[in-house]
């Protein structure tokens, strides 16, 4: 299949421009891992949209720079007067520290001239400028891949402009715990925008989990193992740990120029063991902590003094921000002190360079390094660790890696993991690394080299793009478009023409009265059948050509009470229990289902029920629902947020459950209990019981369903299956396998209808259960028309 063109959008272009004349420009490579990583995207036709690293105010400058950059596949975004407040302000002085658990800098509390709001306004404006440039260059079918915290509002602008655009967003930094993220005043706007993307990616499971948690707690949406579901719209959230381009490092480290550098550096270092640090000079990289740990090591290991050195490449970054100037002074202070303390006339223990270095020199340094020391206090991934591993030669070096770098999850097995805040621990790790046996170094290196070789940037990009294309293609297939208004005439006409009809009806919100008309009681869920339906439903159910199934999350007793008198099928607890009203309930719970979490969850639910007036608990055998629809809405929401924290921390931390945050409820049930997944078993039972011989030729499926239950709409979707359903058995006491020709559904005989949803897998929508009443009336009245 031809690959779509890729528009990469990131704050910075891979090159930083410098004006050398009125119409001429020179370029250097931009710093940082994002640029290094994306340079590895070779297999896509890519256009890169970003800031060229320089302010250009005149038309000639803009034109000539655009032309020169176009030759490199780059498109500049001119940020002009918003740049400072946007980049140095909101991005790097607010989002960056919050995402790395540093909190907002003190000046936001102490200096009235620095306002959060003006910087957020600049952020919005800058995202709008990015949007304008993407819009100008977008061609139908392109994939737009937005990178990082600088462009969190962009997905929303893009989707509002064209809902069919394929949009992905990837975060290169950590996503912090919701407790930290919550402090951000614009927390909801940013999350909502990111959720308009089709796919959201993170480096690690922790970051993805924090994100899901923040969406649940702050927006009150439902989070599943697949992603976030809001009003039927699913945003897939997945983990894609980034890699490097290993061949580039392996090949470079074999170049003769690099080998020459290796010899030269070894000679310069006079036989001392080399500990290397390569970091942007950023507060998150823990460089002062690194120096303190090295000082401790020298303090406690007299024998090593004069035999080991630390070379720190501190690549300049974000010079316009006060915190970055401070960290530089801090580093210089430590270096001066330590060199003064442990240096000699011929050598000092630390070489600290405030500059970036040439790529070949960097590879040479990696290759001769004995210990790479990464002490990030937080880091999205940290590519330097992988680059070091790729460049190793005969005598392997040891990686000391912060447990707070995303890389810790991928390279931890072949590294010495440390807590960078624990100076003693890092100092001990330095000693261990320097004294490590050759065999142990080989063993560790082998593990990590294998990982680095096989998890390349290209692989990372392929995985993300494939997932994004798969998601958007499936979404097109399933929904194609927003649900349509129901063609009532067709529904009725096809109904009257067909011979074996199946009607699957939800209960709550489908066959009950709309909430607004209901009397608000404080004693539980008002689950009563819509009074105008009673007679009509009877009529419908008594037609021998029609099979009616009420499929609900409600428990058996509620369905018995409301539908016991009708000739129909009842599927309680999302299909876990089934009965025809003339028979007994049968259990359809899969044998392996683990329900050990129920007591713990019930305990937490009871606690909150007692403390939230008007709330109540619905228990069933496979799920628990805490409902606060009759409570004070705001207090209920706040309680639900707290409750979720308790649940995640305790009873469900390791359980196979889905937590579904409904509009005014929290539901916990065993994984995979969805209406769609139960359908096959239900169908099997019905067919078997009725001894159906004629295929089902008409299906009407109506529901006010949660996102995870929308799989029931796609279960029968002829366009998706294109093949005849064959209800098969599952579980030991399941019905016999029924005829493979039991469902013979043409597209025009299938009507899936979601109530009150604008994003849904259903083909059609109705506004409320009042419309369902009307529809059922018409089916009864006109069925013979
Ligand atoms: O462009 P700057 O403001 O100078 O910052 C450089 C980049 O820093 C961050 O890099 C992150 O991405 C790396 C690759 O995924 C990851 O390994 C690292 O842990 C992150 O810190 C930032 O996220 C980028 O946007 C910047 O370009
Ligand atoms: O003088 C240098 C030294 C290193 N790097 C590169 O900067 C990137 C740092 O990425 P990392 O993921 O470790 O951290 P980030 O800077 O993105 O936070 C790596 O690819 C390094 O090769 C650089 O651009 N200039």
TrEMBL record:
<dbReference type="Pfam" id="PF00982">
    <property type="entry name" value="Glyco_transf_20"/>
</dbReference>
<dbReference type="GO" id="GO:0005992">
    <property type="term" value="P:trehalose biosynthetic process"/>
</dbReference>
<dbReference type="GO" id="GO:0005829">
    <property type="term" value="C:cytosol"/>
</dbReference>
<dbReference type="GO" id="GO:0004805">
    <property type="term" value="F:trehalose-phosphatase activity"/>
</dbReference>
<comment type="similarity">
    <text>In the N-terminal section; belongs to the glycosyltransferase 20 family.</text>
</comment>
<dbReference type="InterPro" id="IPR003337">
    <property type="entry name" value="Trehalose_PPase"/>
</dbReference>
<keyword id="KW-0328">Glycosyltransferase</keyword>
<dbReference type="Pfam" id="PF02358">
    <property type="entry name" value="Trehalose_PPase"/>
</dbReference>
<dbReference type="GO" id="GO:0003825">
    <property type="term" value="F:alpha,alpha-trehalose-phosphate synthase (UDP-forming) activity"/>
</dbReference>
<keyword id="KW-0808">Transferase</keyword>
<dbReference type="InterPro" id="IPR001830">
    <property type="entry name" value="Glyco_trans_20"/>
</dbReference>
<protein>
    <recommendedName>
        <fullName>alpha,alpha-trehalose-phosphate synthase (UDP-forming)</fullName>
        <ecNumber>2.4.1.15</ecNumber>
    </recommendedName>
</protein>
<comment type="similarity">
    <text>In the C-terminal section; belongs to the trehalose phosphatase family.</text>
</comment>
């Amino acid at each position: 299949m031809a690959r779509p063109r890729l528009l990469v959008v990131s704050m910075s272009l891979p090159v930083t421009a410098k004006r050398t004349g009125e119409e001429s420009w020179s370029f250097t490579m931009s710093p940082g891992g994002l640029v290094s990583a994306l340079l590895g995207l070779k297999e896509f036709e890519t256009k890169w949209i970003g800031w060229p690293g320089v302010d250009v105010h005149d038309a000639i400058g803009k034109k000539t720079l655009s032309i020169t950059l176009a030759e490199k596949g780059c498109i500049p975004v001119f940020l002009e007067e918003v740049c400072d407040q946007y980049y140095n302000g909101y991005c790097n002085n607010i989002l960056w520290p919050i995402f790395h658990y540093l909190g907002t800098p003190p000046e936001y509390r102490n200096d009235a001239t620095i306002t959060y709001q003006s910087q957020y306004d600049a952020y919005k404006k800058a995202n709008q400028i990015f949007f304008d440039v993407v819009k100008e260059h977008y061609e139908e079918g392109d994939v737009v891949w937005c990178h990082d915290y600088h462009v969190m509002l962009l997905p929303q602008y893009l989707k509002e402009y064209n809902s069919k655009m394929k949009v992905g967003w990837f975060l290169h930094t950590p996503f912090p715990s919701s407790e930290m993220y919550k402090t951000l005043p614009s927390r909801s706007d940013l999350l909502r925008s990111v959720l308009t993307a089709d796919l959201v990616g993170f480096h690690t499971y922790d970051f993805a989990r924090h994100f899901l948690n923040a969406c649940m707690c702050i927006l009150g949406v439902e989070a599943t193992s697949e992603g976030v579901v809001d009003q039927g719209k699913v945003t897939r959230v997945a983990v894609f740990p980034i890699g490097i381009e290993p061949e580039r490092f392996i090949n470079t480290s074999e170049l003769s120029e690099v080998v020459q550098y290796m010899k030269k550096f070894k000679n310069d270092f006079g036989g001392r063991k080399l500990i290397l640090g390569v970091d942007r000079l950023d507060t998150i990289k823990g460089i002062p902590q690194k120096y303190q740990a090295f000082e401790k090591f020298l303090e406690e290991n007299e024998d090593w003094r004069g035999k080991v050195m630390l070379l720190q490449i501190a690549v300049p970054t974000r010079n316009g921000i006060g915190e970055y100037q401070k960290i530089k002074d801090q580093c210089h202070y430590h270096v001066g002190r330590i060199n003064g303390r442990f240096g000699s006339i011929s050598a000092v223990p630390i070489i600290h360079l405030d500059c970036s270095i040439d790529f070949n020199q960097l590879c040479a340094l990696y290759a001769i390094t004995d210990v790479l020391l990464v002490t990030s206090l937080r880091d999205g991934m940290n590519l330097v660790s992988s680059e070091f591993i790729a460049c190793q030669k005969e005598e392997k070096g040891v990686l000391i890696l912060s447990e707070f770098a995303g890389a810790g999850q991928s390279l931890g097995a072949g590294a010495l993991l440390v807590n960078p805040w624990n100076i003693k621990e890092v100092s001990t790790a330095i000693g261990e690394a320097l004294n490590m046996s050759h065999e142990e170094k080989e063993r560790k290196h082998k593990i990590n080299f294998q990982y680095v070789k096989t998890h390349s940037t290209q692989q990372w990009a392929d995985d993300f793009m494939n997932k994004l294309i798969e998601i958007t293609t499936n979404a097109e297939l399933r929904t194609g478009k927003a649900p349509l208004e129901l063609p009532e005439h067709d529904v009725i006409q096809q109904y009257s023409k067909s011979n074996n009809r199946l009607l699957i009806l939800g209960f709550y919100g489908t066959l009950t009265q709309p909430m607004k008309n209901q009397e608000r009681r404080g004693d539980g869920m008002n689950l009563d059948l819509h009074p105008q339906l009673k007679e009509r439903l009877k009529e419908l159910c008594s037609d021998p050509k029609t099979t009616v199934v009420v499929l609900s999350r409600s428990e058996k007793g509620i369905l018995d009470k409301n539908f016991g008198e009708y000739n129909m099928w009842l599927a309680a607890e999302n299909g876990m229990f089934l009965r025809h009203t003339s028979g007994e309930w049968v259990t359809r719970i899969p044998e392996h289902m683990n329900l050990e979490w129920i007591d713990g969850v019930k305990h937490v639910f009871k606690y909150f029920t007692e403390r939230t007036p008007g709330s109540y608990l619905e228990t069933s055998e496979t799920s628990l629902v805490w409902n606060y629809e009759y409570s004070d809405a705001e207090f209920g929401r706040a309680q639900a947020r707290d409750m979720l924290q308790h649940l995640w921390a305790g009873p469900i931390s390791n359980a196979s459950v889905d937590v579904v945050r409904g509009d005014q409820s929290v539901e916990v049930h065993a994984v995979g209990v969805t209406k769609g997944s139960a359908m096959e078993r239900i169908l099997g039972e019905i067919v078997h019981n009725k001894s159906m011989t004629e295929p089902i030729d008409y299906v009407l499926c109506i529901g006010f369903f949660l996102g995870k239950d929308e799989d029931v709409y796609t279960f029968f979707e002829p366009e998706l299956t294109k093949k005849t359903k064959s209800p098969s058995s599952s579980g030991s006491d399941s019905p016999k396998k029924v005829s493979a020709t039991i469902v013979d559904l043409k597209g025009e005989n299938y009507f899936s209808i979601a109530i009150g949803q604008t994003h849904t897998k259903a083909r059609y929508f109705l506004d409320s259960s009042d419309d369902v009443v009307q529809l059922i009336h018409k089916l009864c009245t006109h069925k013979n028309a």
